[in-house]
Amino acid sequence: MCAAQVATAHGADRLATSIKASLTRHVGRHDRVSTRVDRPNAAPNSANDAAYVFARRILEADAK
């Protein structure tokens, strides 16, 4: 592999790691806020929040 390919692969890996870390923080923050805030119309697991569902789906797919 040439240096450009290695650098590109490394950059993509760092980006993927950064995105996963960000999603993990988002999901964790969402869970904490959901438990602290009284939201009478929210589903028990906050399944009605599209961003939460999307982030959770990505993290679960990555874990497989």
Describe this structure in words.
This protein is mainly α. 75% of the residues lie in helices and 0% in strands. The chain has a domain at 20-63. It is elongated, with a radius of gyration of 16 Å. The two termini are 28 Å apart. The relative contact order is 0.12. The mean pLDDT is 71.
Portion in strands: under 5%
pLDDT averaged over residues: 71
Question: Rg from C-alpha positions?
Answer: 16 Å
Overall shape:
elongated
**What is the helix/strand order?**
HH
Helix run count: 2
Largest sheet: none
Oligomeric grouping of the chains: single chain
Terminal residue distance: 28 Å
SS-based structural class? mainly alpha
Number of strands: 0
- The helix content is over 70%
Residue runs with pLDDT of under 50 for 5 or more positions:
none
Brief rundown of the structure:
This protein is mainly α and 64 residues long. It is built from 2 helices and no strands.
Write the layout of secondary structure elements.
Blueprint: H1 3-36, H2 50-63
Key terms:
64 residues; mainly alpha; 2 helices
